[in-house]
Structure formats: structure tokens, C-alpha cells
Protein 1
Amino acid sequence: MSDVHDLVRERYGRIAEEGGTGPGCCAPQSACCGDAAEKSRRMGYAEAELAAAPEGANLGLGCGNPQAIAALRAGEVVVDLGSGAGFDAFLAARQVGPEGRVIGIDMTPEMLDKARANARKAGAANVSFLLGRIEDLPLPEGLADVVISNCVINLSPDKPRVFAEAFRVLKPGGRVAISDVVRIGAMPAAMTADPDGLCACISGAASPAEIEAWLAATGFAEAAVSLKPASREMIAGWAPGSGAEDFVVSAFIAARKPAA
């Protein structure tokens, strides 16, 4: 498990240092290469959202817009799993307002440095970023109203533990709103063993049935995985020529912690 964490940390550390461009991308021609704003538009972010984030927060990573299903409200506490340079965390902070709070969790020191610098530039007093793994959140139980994440859980070697940690830190009645990639077909062995495929958010994807089963086993209710077939065009650019779009698609993952 630590080998996977080390691999992901090293790749995303390079992305942070290089601003999301150049040879530090996850795979030879992965999704982080190119214009971040244009890729974010394809993921479902509105122009107003792109304009609102601090400069340097949007690295063009992710596979969708978790804000679209989070239904965030003023005063809520939000935890962002794998917060990177802070793009989704800053957008969430706008939704919850000064009376709310957003906590980003990331295991990559270079990403944390970038996110904290962005927070200082933006004067975002209701956002903070902590070092930690999403399988072992450095947070007390029952803290959050909402847990969000954008194309990060697929990178984890222990996804059931991630969902269990999300359940632990949520208040009763709290919810998860996740954008991630899911597996829709059996991958070739060469693809599942490819470290570039893992870091490009392809080979580590779980099936919708697995995700729904993990959520239910953890105690979540109303679990739903909603596929986005149109995302295959975007995914085709993550590892050109690999056929990855035949095996994974982007999806929204939603569930709620029972109130009682």
C-alpha cells in the first residue's frame, strides 16, 4: 500500500511544482497537460466558477465538478478529500460563506504548499489545508456536513477505508458528493499493472457495484453512482491510444449518513 502512496505522491508533487504542465504529468500525455481552464469547462465547471478561484488553484485535474451535486449551503462544514492546489475547496468556500468552513486534505506536501499560498493570496479565511491520507483523516468524528472529492479516491489502494473515514467524520445526516472515474469493463492486465495508468486515474478505478457495496457496508444510505458516458471523449485524451475510454467513465457518487 505504501508503494502506491509513494508513487502517487511523487507524481502529483511534480505536477504541483510544474503548475500542471510539462513532463511532470501523471502519464505521458495525461489529463493534466494543456489548458486547465478549458479542461475544467469540459468537466462541467461554469465560467463564474473558473473566474472565482484564486490564480494557480486550478491545475486542470479532476474528472467532473462535485459542486454540481453537493448542494452546499451557508454555514456548512466541508471536507475535500485530495484537495490538491485547492480549486474545489475554494469554490466550496464561496458556497458555505464566512460562517462555514472548508478543510482540504492532501498527502502531497508540494500541493499543500501551493494550496496554502493560494489561500493567503485570496484571503480565504474559511479554508484550511491539512497533511494526511484520505484513508486516515486527521479529523475528529462528526465534524462535517459534506465530504467532497474530485477524481482522487480511485488512486487509493484501500477504497473501503476511504469511505469508512468519510462516514466517520460526517455528522449524522451528512452526505458525500464525489466525482470520480469508475470501471465499466474488464481491463487488460497490462493496463491494470501500468503505474502511469494508475496515476492517470484509469487503472485504479472500481466498478459502480463495488462502490455501492462499500458505501452500504460502511453504513451509508441512498448510495448512487451516476455514470457520465459523454466523459469518454475527455478520458480518451488522458492516455491517447490506450483505449482507456472503453474501460472507465466519469461518474457522480452520492450517499448520505443516516440521521439516526
Protein 2
Amino acid sequence: MESDERIRNAVMNTEIVRPPRQSLATFGTTSVYYYLVAEATYNELIKKQETVIREGRVIAERPKIVTPSYLSRVQGFSPEAKKYFDMLMTQGHPDSPGLVYAYRNEPKELNIVSDNLTTVVARLNEQIDQKGDPLISIIKGEDYLWDVSILKFIYEITSRSVGDNVRQLNQRGLLNVDSRGVTSDARIRIESLFDLVEKGEMEPADLKVELDRWGVFEDYQDRFFSIFHKKH
């Protein structure tokens, strides 16, 4: 319970002081550089104002279009998660498309400066303005649970981007679902995976996994097995 309370406090005390000035890319990878600033946890002990500055990058992969049916076939989820997918398919439509975002955090430098947090933020804002990079952010967080602050940051930039991402995908017809419950985007992706397998840049087993997740292996099995005939 104490741990839960600390996490809640870290979330409540996290503020995106300077969000990215553009949305996450719909059709590519986005790299957002961040400065996470926090008051040093020992300030009261030393009777001074020191600020911890953590730098790093959040890498957002291209958002992937999925459906509840697709997710229900993905391995590695708990029975509770499977029940949730079943509930989605019961309450809504099993083939309703949605977006899944994948991220990785790459921490870089850590510095401690003898200035208060407000002064540090002002200085960083000035530096970022001079660079003119729209994908640099400042996050005010808690030093003792700084990674929780990063997670809140990821949640917020995703929330701000999803509407624009959906609009662009919809304009290209990639959210359309065919009679088999497969999105147009998935069909295009499957074609690209076949190309990678035929070039030897991807294992056939990985392609098979994706076909099974969409429940369309039978649609492609002749083409799939023909790859082995070509190699022999």
C-alpha cells in the first residue's frame, strides 16, 4: 500500500512543462529527447537547493493497427488479460481496429546543479528555443521514482498524438477491415513480411506467427510453403 501511494504521488507531481511541439509520427519512428528535472531528495538535509537533471530519449515505434481478435491470439498475456480481450469482443466488435504504441526509453546523462528547479527549467527552455528542435521536452518529476514520471510522459504524448494518427491512417484507408476481420494496414504489412522472408532478412517462423495472429494462415499457406520450394 505504501508503494502504491508513492507511485500515486509521483504521478500527481509529474508535469510536462514543455511537451513536444509535434505529434508522434503516424508512419515512422519518433525520437523525443527529454530533460527530466527534479528537486534533489536530500535538499532538506543539506539546506541547499540542488536540482537533478536526467536526460534521455523516448523512442516511439510506428503505431500498429490491431483488433481485439488479433490481440486475443497474442501469446504471453495472463488469463485476466485474455478475459479482458474476450469482454472487448463481446461488448463491442471483435474486428474494431485500434492502435498499439511500442516504446523504449534510452537514459543518457545525469547531472546535479546548484540551482533551484525554476531557474533550471528557464535555462533549459532558452537552450531548446535556440536549437529550434520540436521534439525536445522538459518534464518536472520526482527524483525517487523518475521512471514513473517517464511513463506518465509517454502516456500524455500518446494521448495527444492518437487523434492525429487515427485521422491520417483513416485518410489512407488503412483502418478499413475486410470480411476476414483483417485491416488494410495488416494486409500491407503481411506483404512486406513475405518480401523480407524471401530476401532472407526474416525467419519464416516470424511470418507464420503474424499470419496466425490475424487468423489468415490458410489464405497464404500455398505462398508460404512455396518459399521453401524456391530455396530448395
Protein 3
Amino acid sequence: MPSQDIKVTTRNNESLDSYLTQPSGDDRYPGILYVTAISGADETNRLMGDQWAKDGFIVSMPDIFWRQHPGPTADREIAQARYNAFDAEQGMLDIEDIINDLKAQPNCNGKVAVLGFCFGGRYAHLAAARLNVNAVGAFHGTKISLHLDETKNITCPVSYHFGSIDNSIPLDEVNAIIDSYAGHPDAEISVYEGQAHNFSTPGKPAYHPETAKISRDAVLRCFQKM
């Protein structure tokens, strides 16, 4: 399965790194913009990206914190600081540029989903509302509730997954997200009883393989609608 580190050029001719992984073969495939948690594009996320490529998608995993503190990090203090410093509006401009780069890849068929983990969930939601993407998915996505006024603009398939005891996303926030999508014809928002933050991420203390598989299968079905 081909994978490589690439450079993505922004609208202002700046350059950022992204990990690109894709299926073997010469067919044209839908793309996934994979927005990581605050740890960044570390080895665990790259392996997870490779799994999505095996499912038939071209995956671009940008160094999303390149403007604050680039590269993956296991240092919680650094990760949290760059999360706090991240400029959401500038981040959305970067995400739009990365999506355009992904669509321009030779084997991309022009359709793109956005997949967000934790930090990335907010930007999956915003991409659906603002950037006319073809599907979105998120696992334990934070700060989605800041933008529920934009849910009305979302028409693509949606698949969000939360734990019932996630201290980063209280259930009242999850319920507000569910309510905001009540009129959407193709939005699946699931809450898993007894699951905490990072239930979907291997190597994390709260990782729960069964729930991770159930939720991932749901997102895969969502993305296969593209």
C-alpha cells in the first residue's frame, strides 16, 4: 500500500507537511482528510490512516498544528498548549487548502470526507457546514457544540460517536448536538454507555476494541455513501 510524506501548498504559498496513504492500484478513489487529536500525526494515527486506505480511500493526514508547534508529540503540556493556541478560522482556511490538494491527487475521484478524532471533530463539523464535503465522521469530537448554529447548513452524511462518561464532552453537549441534527435525514450520532474519551484510539487507557470496531464500521458505512 503506497504511502508518503508530501508537501501541501496553501493559498498564501506556504508549505505544510501531510502523510498521504492510498490503496494499491490505479483506480480513482474518494479521499479522506484525517484531522488528528492533539497528539498529531504520530505512528498510531498513521497506522489507522493506512487502515482507511485499505478500505478504499486516499487519506491525507496533515500536520494540522504546523503553525503552532509542528510534528507529533507525546508531551501532554505541548499538545494542550497548541490546542489552546489553534486559530479555528485560520485552521479552516488551511483545511480547505488541504482538501483541494487531496482532490487534485491523481487517484482521487474528487469526493472527500473529513474524519476527526477529538480535536478534529470540530473541524469535521465545520467542513460539513462550510466546505461542501461529501461526508463527515468523528470519534469523541470536542467543541462541536460551539458551532451548532451551522448544523442547518449540513446536508452530507454524518456519523459521530461519543462515550457516555467522556469528561471532555459532557452529555449535555452531546444531547445538544443530537438535537441540532434532529432534522437531518442522514445523521447517525451514537453514544456508548460506559465509554470514556479515546475509546477508539489504540494505546490509550480508555481504548475499547469492541466499541472502536462498532463505531468505525458505522463511519465506514457513512463514507461508502460518497
